[in-house]
Design goal:
Number of domains: 1
Strand order of the largest sheet: 7-6-10-9-8
Order of helices and strands: HEEEHHEHEEEEEEHEHH
Number of strands: 11
CATH topology: TIM Barrel
CATH class: Alpha Beta
CATH architecture: Alpha-Beta Barrel
């Protein structure tokens, strides 16, 4: 769920009311927590969650101690830190700030997690790391931390945005600042001939993000959005799938692995004929 962003902390009471009323309306129907119901003799889990923008102007307005008891987890939208709206070509999904190139990291994930967990009291297990399956393009630039003008003309998703599966573009060389080596935890490509930078996650970067999730004891990962990935339904790391790379990274013999819960795909009580019939022909 994503109610409108409150303009200030005082008015963020509406967020608390929204999540609490959402919890009440669900628990009225499903009185036992965790929220498990039986539909066509199959058990489903229903979660009450919230996804939210990362910038401090957004998350500092939230009444986290009041909201968290009602929510199963938060999806941290840890992407879109930089894009066509920016004045400087920056990283869009970096884990930390850059000590050597600060202008390339106007926002960073560690700052948000520190606020949610250490100041807001949100259990780390309720924080889910959002990751992009697309790249933001910066034209006529010398790379991260420098000015740019324009964006890519060959957009595969929307203006200025390329699907991960279309990257790197011809001429683009991939780079990464490893967080384990003191970097900001970001990857990108740069074409020096066309002076085009694209900020996106790569397989090595997602390997680091999987380790980051484990090190911070976070609840998991999520993506926007899956059509941008490689590998098709198998989502194999060997095919370049970022989702598959992450799953492999959190599925070692000493890891907690994936939660095994079925999606709710059957709604026989729905008022909509097509939903009750499971969208026949679609």
């Amino acid at each position: 769920m994503q109610p409108p962003i409150p303009p200030n902390y005082r008015l963020s009471r509406g967020y608390v009311n929204t999540v609490s009323s959402g919890h009440i309306s669900v628990t009225d129907i499903l009185p036992n927590a965790p929220l498990i119901v039986k539909s066509v003799n199959i058990g489903f889990l229903y979660f009450l969650t919230l996804h939210f923008l990362l910038g401090p102007d957004n998350y500092q307005k939230l009444r986290l101690p009041e909201m968290t008891p009602y929510l199963d987890f938060y999806n941290l939208m840890a992407y879109d830190y930089s894009g066509s709206w920016s004045t400087i070509a920056g990283h869009q999904a970096n884990l930390n700030h850059s000590n050597s190139n600060a202008t390339s990291t106007p926002f960073y994930t560690v700052a948000a997690l520190d606020y949610y967990i250490n100041k807001g009291g949100v259990p780390s297990s309720k924080m889910v790391l959002g990751m992009p399956l697309y790249g933001h393009t910066f034209a006529n630039t010398d790379g991260p931390g420098t000015r740019f003008q324009g964006k890519s003309d060959g957009d595969s998703m929307e203006s200025g945005i390329l699907a991960y599966k279309a990257l790197p573009q011809a001429g683009g060389q991939e780079f990464m600042e490893s967080i384990t080596q003191g970097g900001c935890g970001a990857s990108w490509s740069y074409d020096p001939a066309n002076r085009m930078m694209v900020s996106y996650d790569t397989v090595p970067m997602v390997e680091e993000k999987a380790k980051f999730v484990k090190d911070w004891d976070l609840g998991g990962g999520m993506w926007w959005e899956v059509s941008g990935d490689r590998g098709g339904v198998t989502a194999s790391k060997s095919d370049g799938s970022l989702i598959g790379t992450f799953v492999d990274g959190v599925s070692g013999p000493t890891d907690k692995g994936l939660e095994q819960a079925m999606n709710a795909l059957e709604f026989p009580e729905s008022q909509y004929d097509n939903l009750r019939a499971k969208f026949p022909g679609e």
